[in-house]
Write a structure and sequence with these properties.
Layout: H1 5-14, E1 30-37, H2 51-57, E2 72-80, E3 86-93, E4 100-107, E5 116-119, H3 126-129, E6 134-139, H4 175-183, E7 187-193, E8 202-205, E9 207-208
Antiparallel strand pairs: 1-2, 1-9, 2-3, 3-6, 4-5, 4-7, 7-8
Pfam families: CHRD
Region (Disordered): 40-73
Protein name: CHRD domain-containing protein
Length: 212
């Protein structure tokens, strides 16, 4: 008597080897996002800084139009697949490290100024971290910013600090949330210098890295 086809299929599945992976791989395998930074990605010129912010930002050097700047950079974020941590690797060129004031990851689509979600100057000035033009560091949940109040002069149309999803007031507070935003294409690096404090010296939108 022949085994019915519908019964034979489940029996065959039970004979397959288990596909579960070693959980330890979650901390040693990565999902990678990368950005090539350039002044052209900044949504405006420093000369267009809102008057209300000029004094507080305190630019101390003359600005240069975006098309005339030689600054360039590359940055990547490697998220551990268990989303417990991430690693940031950055290299910049055409920028005097002594002129760097701030370096952040912001949340916002291309052409939009968004809130800061990771501040690379929390423990040490970014000028020191990028003294030789390169920087590598580890991120954990404690490095993901939760912004309670916006500066009075800024009134964004969306809930502050990168909402996990439009329509929700919850803010991103974890590496898992940071990776989710990277997947949506709404994270970007922004380097600020003494001459370009508002929009920034150069910017790089993060996208999934392609294997070469």
């Amino acid at each position: 008597m022949r085994t019915p086809v519908l019964l034979a299929l489940p029996l065959a599945l039970f004979t397959l080897p288990a596909l579960a992976k070693d959980p330890a791989l979650g901390a040693t395998t990565y999902t990678v996002y990368e950005a090539y930074m350039s002044p052209a990605q900044e949504p405006g010129e420093e000369s267009e800084t809102p008057k209300a912010l000029e004094k507080s930002l305190g630019a101390t050097a003359p600005s240069t139009p975006r098309e005339n700047r030689k600054s360039r950079g590359y940055g990547q974020i490697r998220f551990a697949k268990d989303l417990s941590k991430a690693y940031v690797d950055v290299e910049i060129q055409g920028v005097n490290a002594a002129d760097i004031l701030m370096f952040h990851i912001h949340c916002g689509p291309p052409g939009v100024l968004g809130p800061i979600i990771v501040d690379f100057g929390e423990s040490e000035s970014p000028a020191k971290k990028l003294a030789n033009g390169k920087m590598t560091l580890e991120l954990t949940n404690k490095n993901v910013l939760f912004v309670k109040d916006m500066p009075k002069s800024l009134k964004p149309s969306l809930p502050e600090s990168c909402p996990a999803e439009l329509g929700f007031l919850a803010q991103t507070k974890t590496i898992a949330g940071l990776e989710y935003l990277a997947r949506k294409g709404v994270l970007y690096f922004n380097l600020h210098t003494k001459a370009h404090t508002y929009y920034g010296e150069m910017r790089g939108q993060l996208y999934p890295a392609k294997e070469e």
